[in-house]
Structure formats: C-alpha cells, structure tokens
C-alpha cells in the first residue's frame, strides 16, 4: 500500500496521534499517560488502536517522488495541540519532519529510529545457506495436510 501511495501522490502530511495500547502501552516516551485521542470523560479508554491522520495531495506531475511530512502528538492534550497547530499559516510544513519513502526503507511513512549505520548491517537472508522460501505451499486444497500420521499416510497413499 505504501509503495502504491508513493507512486500515486506527490505530498503527504501525517499527524500521528499515538495512543496505541499494544505498541506503547498508552504511555508517552517520557512515561506520561497517552490516552487515545478518542478518550472522553465517560470513556477514558477511547479506542485501543493508535490513530493517525493522513492528508495526501496528488499533483499533475507524477514523475516527482512522494515527500512525506511527519509529526507526533503525545499526551492527554494532543487534540488541543493538533487544533492549535493549524493556526501556523506560515511555513506549515516546518512543523513536520521530512521523509523520503523508498524501497530501502519499505516505503515507510514514519521516521526511522535506528542507528545511522543500521542499513550497513548484514540481513538475515545474507546469513542463510540457501535462498529462503515463504514456507510450503500445498496447492492441492489441503489433501496432503493432516494433524495425525495415519490420516496423512492414507492421503499420501491415495495421492500416489
């Protein structure tokens, strides 16, 4: 999907509102509460998933690579902070971190938080003796798959 978006759009602004209970435990990087942007007085939990707002712009020149502008909002006041940020009419994109999605970073729309030399490290594939495969692909509608040995043996006898 990110690759397709990179081919179709010229600019994107991503406002990450965080609040993901599984990824961050609903805590900011400094350990403060980071509720969902959908938290309300009678439902403090909001939703469990983190939330982001993406604005994608498509211009007439498809030859230009996608430019992504990214920023994070953290904490209980993120909704107010997001709304207040809309008042910065001058150089609006200066509030964001610029990113260049490309195949080497899996067309990521988020900033990389790795060491500078991370991309120089060998990949897991480079350590393998043989080209990895995605696993066995049984293309016979499961006829050669079974949970017990007897059923599998019978199915293989029938197949051969």
- Average pLDDT works out at 83
E-strand count? 4
Shape: extended
Low-pLDDT segments: none
Beta-strand fraction estimate: 5-15%
Major sheet description:
4 strands, mixed
Count of DSSP-assigned helices = 4
Strand order of the largest sheet: 2-1-3-4
Word description of this protein:
With 160 residues, the chain is of the alpha+beta class. 19% of the residues lie in helices and 13% in strands. Strands 2-1-3-4 form a four-stranded mixed β-sheet, with no helix packed on it. The longest helix has 11 residues, at 149-159.
In short:
With 160 residues, the protein is an alpha+beta fold.
Write the layout of secondary structure elements.
Blueprint: H1 2-8, E1 11-16, E2 52-57, E3 67-72, H2 78-85, E4 97-99, H3 124-127, H4 149-159
Parallel strand pairs: 1-3
Antiparallel strand pairs: 1-2, 3-4
Task: List descriptors.
160 residues, 4 strands, alpha+beta, four-stranded mixed β-sheet, 4 helices
């Amino acid at each position: 999907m990110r690759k397709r978006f990179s081919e179709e759009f010229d600019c994107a602004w991503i406002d990450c509102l965080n609040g993901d209970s599984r990824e961050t435990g609903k805590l900011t990087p400094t350990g403060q509460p980071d509720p969902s942007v959908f938290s309300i007085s009678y439902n403090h939990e909001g939703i469990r998933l983190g939330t982001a707002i993406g604005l994608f712009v498509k211009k007439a020149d498809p030859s230009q690579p996608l430019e992504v502008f990214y920023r994070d909002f953290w904490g209980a006041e993120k909704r107010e902070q997001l709304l207040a940020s809309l008042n910065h009419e001058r150089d609006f994109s200066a509030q964001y971190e610029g990113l260049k999605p490309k195949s080497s970073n899996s067309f990521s729309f988020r900033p990389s938080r790795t060491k500078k030399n991370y991309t120089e490290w060998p990949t897991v594939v480079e350590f393998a003796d043989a080209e990895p495969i995605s696993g066995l692909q049984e293309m016979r509608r499961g006829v050669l798959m079974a949970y017990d040995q007897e059923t599998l043996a019978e199915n293989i006898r029938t197949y051969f």
